[in-house]
Amino acid sequence: MSTTRREFIASTGKAAIAGGLITLAENNTTDMAENKFVHHVYFWLKNPDSKEDKAKLIAGLKKLSAVKTIKWFHIGQPADTNRGVIDTSYAISWCTFFDNDADQASYQVDPIHLKFVEECSSLWTKVIVYDSVDAK
Fold this sequence. Notes:
- By secondary structure, the protein is of the alpha+beta class.
- The chain has four helices and four strands; from the N terminus they run H-E-H-E-E-H-H-E.
- Residues 37-132 form the Stress-response A/B barrel domain.
């Protein structure tokens, strides 16, 4: 069977993408399985309509991600979902993963974390934290 150059490139490109997605899925699963302590923080801004305040908080969280004991982090905002059990009243969420509770405890007193609180706490009116560990 004869294939054109365009068909060959298209089929190998699809295979490469599929292979990459499988690799990404495998890597994410492995990385997530190694994390034992999850620290999830939700922030309500004093000025919820202020794009500047939101940008300042996000910038502060990006700096905060430099804490050495953080294994993985995610900065998020409410998804566009609408079900009775979903709370979308917060502005920004900060989800971090640590190897253990001792690493999370050291994060709490890390100078980078303390500087973040000092520089950004004026931006929010409310913070809720959910910490969790692996269920046994």
